[in-house]
Amino acid sequence: MAQRNPDPAHSPAQGSTRLPASPRLPAPLGPGDSPEPGNPLTGEALAVYLRAQATEFLRALRLHRETGGAGAAGAEESVDAARALRRSARRISAGLHTFRALLDGDWSDAMRPELAWVSGTLGLEHAYEARLERLLLALHRLSGTTAPPARAVTAGAPLTAALAPAPGAGGVGPAAVPERGPLTVGAAKAGALLDRRLTLARTRAHSTALQVLGSSRFHAVADRVAVLASEVPLAPAAPAADPRPPAAAAAERLTNAIAALPLVTAGHPYNAEALVHGLSPDPSPHPQDGPWHQVRLLLRLHRYAQEVLAGGGAPVDVRLPAAGRALDRHRDASEAASAAAQAARTPRIAPATAYALGVLHADQRHEVEASRFAFQQAWQPRTVTAL
Amino acid sequence: MAQRNPDPAHSPAQGSTRLPASPRLPAPLGPGDSPEPGNPLTGEALAVYLRAQATEFLRALRLHRETGGAGAAGAEESVDAARALRRSARRISAGLHTFRALLDGDWSDAMRPELAWVSGTLGLEHAYEARLERLLLALHRLSGTTAPPARAVTAGAPLTAALAPAPGAGGVGPAAVPERGPLTVGAAKAGALLDRRLTLARTRAHSTALQVLGSSRFHAVADRVAVLASEVPLAPAAPAADPRPPAAAAAERLTNAIAALPLVTAGHPYNAEALVHGLSPDPSPHPQDGPWHQVRLLLRLHRYAQEVLAGGGAPVDVRLPAAGRALDRHRDASEAASAAAQAARTPRIAPATAYALGVLHADQRHEVEASRFAFQQAWQPRTVTAL
Q: Which end of chain A is more exposed for a tag (fewer CB within 10 A), N or C?
């Protein structure tokens, strides 16, 4: 194929037209983008991708500082900027990992843990917020109350107010207002407890993120990303090297990990597998979730490697988006179930609160099972039979 | 068809060869049995069926008395006899209901509530025992412990002993013995609480059953069943009447009730429908279960009507066994979930106990959802897609 032969008409130097010095910054590369039409699949495809992601990182960082990290925490633009920052950090890190052979190895090995630290630390605040939202939505669903407006969900207090009986209203209300018995009070108390715990965790994560963004360690990372945006430290042979073998290796690691998953079981609806150990005393996440989390990471590495190749016209696996969403949901439900179980260990809670947290835990473990089924269906769809 | 024309070679009197006076009693009719080869489909088919079921009722009653209700409660033969008694009472009652037009109406209307009282009262003991077994098995599954031997499951105490930490064993045990943390203690306490409650209910049901079997009201029922075993009070026109229209009406009632079920939702695995209102304060069974319970009863009436016709060679719907099992499981899981929720209202229970009961409740509600899916698959199998 022509792609294997570097086209002299597209020299590596052309990539430098996409440097961050330009006032109008280019959009990051996505699957299907083909920034260099006819670009041959060489190390230069990787360089183009890494420069674009580094540029996006710097753009997001500038936006995050302008929209104000500290003061306007939670402002929509600031949240978007933080997400874009994590998004590009993940992609750069993945590129350094998958295509390490095409890069300066020492530089790559020093850079990756720093990027993981950035995306990990900056992602915590959002993770706690999303976890609380997921759990409060589930409590509403389980209480048969209609889903509250989005703002009330994340605020926490409105949920408690909506679920708790009005002061002095002890008995049965009018038909239009559902009766509030002890277990509904349990759901309200469980919601308030989760709100307290996860809001505290989120606030701490927010403070940590601000400290990180102001730290000299982070500034060093940003400086290195700025260098990356103009100059990718390729290995000497990389400009002419084929990036497809390392991408194929990433695909193979994914395929092998998926082959080890219990997909036959997952493809049987209601296999009741995810709630085994649901009453186990181990506070750590279910060990059975580990291989699925691992596949989620490998699938992401594979997807980003595909993005690198996509600039050269490589085909994209149409199963990836749905499979990735299923695994994200798996991770979210797994962590939400753990959060409910951990909250149930709070000393001196009422039995009704503990009961509601038990129902909530089991509900989220079934979400775990449902997302495994969804992954199986996305990856190898076939006729399903009941157990 | 020849079946519509009564064959003079098979006069109604032939049915009297199956009277209970014979020392060797005939087996009850089941689908596919054809006791009267070439028997035309007339009211006589119903008479044959009712006589056989009445005979079976009397045989089971005799066996139950011989194997000794009071003293040897729980002995296997006695349990089998009680089950056979309920089984024939249900079939007689269903026959009187579906084919009322072919019978003496007053007699039928007087007899049916008495048979419902007998099968209902005698079924309670078994229902409580099965419910406890289902819940304790689920607790074992949820605790990640292997299922105990059958005797330990129903005895209750061995479960508690198996789950509770050994006296003085406070910390982490050797790797071979799973660590027993607070929530496992919660599962053990939940099991002990359910054992106490359901064993008490079962014991009361057993006493009630013994009182029933010794009551003059029951003796009156048994006397009337003895008469039925030799003389079915058919309506004047019944010997020549076609039993298929009333059987078709029973089938139509079933079809209409199934058409009203949310089968599209049920056919989507993990639709999370059964646990909506999982934290509702209403102690009564979920109202959404009602239509399914109703279909379960209508399916049983349809099946018994098919049994009546089967003597005349009518086709049997192959979907009935699997669909019936799914609805039985639906009923059992629904009632087990309620039992867990009710136990959680016990005053002064520990939070860990309440948490375990919450997990157990949600687990059984997912069993409810799973059995709806199984019913949908049995009734109208098709390709399933993930939500």
A: N
Q: Which of B141, B358, B385 comes nearest A358 by C-beta?
A: B358
ipTM: 0.79
Tell me the angle at which helices B216-228 and B43-67 cross, rounded to the nearest 10 degrees: 140
CA B138 to chain centre: 20
Closest by CA to A122, choosing from A67, A92, A80, A66, is A80
Closest CA to A311 of A88, A21, A48: A48
* Subunit contact A142:B351, Cβ cutoff 8 A: no
| B344 with A361: Cβ contact below 8 A | no
List the single best residue of B189, B280, B338, B359 to mutate versus A (max A Cβ within 10 A).
B359
Other beta carbons less than 10 A from residue A278's beta carbon: 28
Nearest alpha-carbon partner for A188 in A164, A207, A216, A157: A164
* Residue A182 C-alpha from the chain's centroid: 37
Task: Kindly tell me if the per-residue pLDDT of A171 is higher than 50.
Answer: no
CB spacing of A142 vs B275 below 8 angstroms = yes
Distance between CA atoms of A118 and A208, rounded to whole angstroms?
11
Pick left, alpha or beta for residue B32 (phi over 0 → left; psi -120 to 50 → alpha; otherwise beta).
left
Q: Is A362 within 8 Å of B357 when comparing Cβ atoms?
A: no
Question: For the CA atoms of B51, B53, B54, B56, what is the dihedral angle to 10 degrees?
Answer: 120
Task: Tell me which DSSP letter residue B299 carries.
Answer: H
Instruction: Give me the amino acid identity at B333.
Output: A
DSSP string, A96-123: HHHTGGGB-HHHHHHHHHHHHHHHHHHH
Question: Which of A355, A382, A383, A384 would best serve as a mutation to test chain B binding (most B beta carbons within 10 A)?
Answer: A355
Distance CA B300, CA B294 (A): 10
pTM for the model: 0.80
Give the closest of B144, B349, B373 to A270, CB-based: B373
Mean pLDDT score of chain B: 80
Helix H, strand E, coil C: the string for B152-215 is HHHHCHHHHHHHCCCCCCCCCCCCCCCCCCHHHHHHHHHHHHHHHHHHHHHHHHHHHHHHHHHC
CA distance B5 to B241: 10
- Which residues is B234 bridged to in the sheet? B103
What CA–CA distance (Å, rounded) separates A192 from A160?
6
- Check residue B311 and give its pLDDT: 73
Instruction: Give the other-Cβ count within 10 Å of A237's Cβ.
Output: 10
- pLDDT higher than threshold 80 for residue A327: yes
> Nearest CA to CA, how far is A75 from chain B (Å)?
32
State yes or no: pLDDT of A314 exceeds 90: no
Q: What are phi and psi of B234, to 5 degrees?
A: -75, 155
Closest CA to B90 of B125, B64, B118, B51: B118
Residue A232 has pLDDT above 90, yes or no: yes
- Judged by CB atoms closer than 8 Å, whether chains meet at A183 and B272 is answered as no
Q: Cα-flanking dihedrals φ and ψ of residue B103, to 5°?
A: -120, 165
Q: Flag the least confident range among B2-11, B224-233, B348-357.
A: B2-11
CB contact under 8 A, B350 and A351: yes
pLDDT at B147 over 80: no
Q: CA B146 to CA B140: how far, in whole Å?
A: 7
The count of CB pairs under 8 A between chains A and B is 194
Residue of A nearest to B375 (CA): A386
Ordered alpha helix ranges (H), chain B = 43-67, 76-98, 105-143, 150-155, 157-163, 182-214, 216-228, 244-259, 263-266, 290-310, 320-343, 351-379
**Which residue is associated with the tokens 């025992």?**
B129
> Are the C-beta atoms of B18 and B45 separated by less than 8 Å?
no
How long is chain A? 387
Pairwise CA distance, residues B218 & B210, whole Å: 11
User: Rounded to the nearest 5°, which phi and psi values hold at B305?
Assistant: -65, -40
Q: Which positions in chain A touch B370 (Cβ < 8 Å)?
A: 269-270, 272, 386-387
